[in-house]
Amino acid sequence: MAAAGLVLVRLLVLAAVVSTLTALNDPTCECPDGFKLCAGHCLRRLDRALTYDEARIMCAGLGAHLAVPRTEAENQCADSAAAGQLVWLGVTEVPGDEGHYVGADACGDVPVGQFWASGQPENYGPRGEDRVVMVPHDSGTVHAVGWHDNPAEQEWHPLCQRSLFYRPDCLN
Ligand SMILES: [Ca+2]
């Protein structure tokens, strides 16, 4: 009787292992509808120009946040996903701490430098600028390519970003 019980336990364990492996083989290495995978993140540029807060809320409604490129590859992905439009990034200045930027991805500080357009951020105007917009290489505008600080009331297209649930086999 004890032996039969042991066999049953082993069968149950085996069934659990098989079911786990089956789940891992599900073809779910895809971003949600409308999002495109690039450098390990899902990106989606929305079709309407909105204020920063409106853009942030629209992305949140999609289970995403405004994009925060942190590597050259991620910045190139954002530039491509922008598809010629100026896009809000999830990069904001800490209130009362001029020049100190943090990311909406909850990964902390975003340094000034690398991806910024020449002369930016410059906190232009009497009210200053504490949000960040990306000018892609193909914007067709006079604005220099790269990141610019901008006031939150400006209207630009939201660039939303979600993480792909971590699975090593999904990263290629
Ligand atoms: Ca500026």
Relevant terms:
3 helices, binds calcium ion, 9 strands, 23% strand, single chain, 9-stranded mixed beta sheet, alpha+beta, Mannose-Binding Protein A, Chain A, 172 residues
3D architecture notes:
This protein is an alpha+beta fold and 172 residues long. It has one domain (32-165): Roll (Mannose-Binding Protein A, Chain A). The protein has helices spanning 2-24, 52-61, 72-82, and strands at residues 36-38, 41-45, 65-66, 87-93, 101-103, 109-110, 131-135, 146-150, 157-163. Strands 1, 2, 3, 4, 5, 6, 7, 8 and 9 form a 9-stranded mixed beta sheet that branches. The protein starts with a helix and ends in a 9-residue tail after the last strand. Residues 19-26 have low confidence and may be disordered. It binds calcium ion. Calcium ion (CA) binds at residues 120-122, 124, 129, 148-150.
Look at the helices and sheets and give the structural class.
alpha+beta
Q: What is the averaged pLDDT score?
A: 88
- The CATH class: Alpha Beta
> Shape, please?
elongated
Total of DSSP H or I helical runs spanning 4+ residues = 3
Give the H and E element order: HEEHEHEEEEEE
CATH superfamily: Mannose-Binding Protein A, subunit A
Cα(first) to Cα(last) distance is 50 Å
- Total of domains: 1
The strand count comes to 9
CATH topology: Mannose-Binding Protein A, Chain A
Strand content: 15-25%
Radius of gyration over all CA atoms, rounded:
22 Å
Short description:
The chain is α+β, with helices and mostly antiparallel strands and 172 residues long. It has 3 helices and 9 strands. Pfam families: Lectin_C.
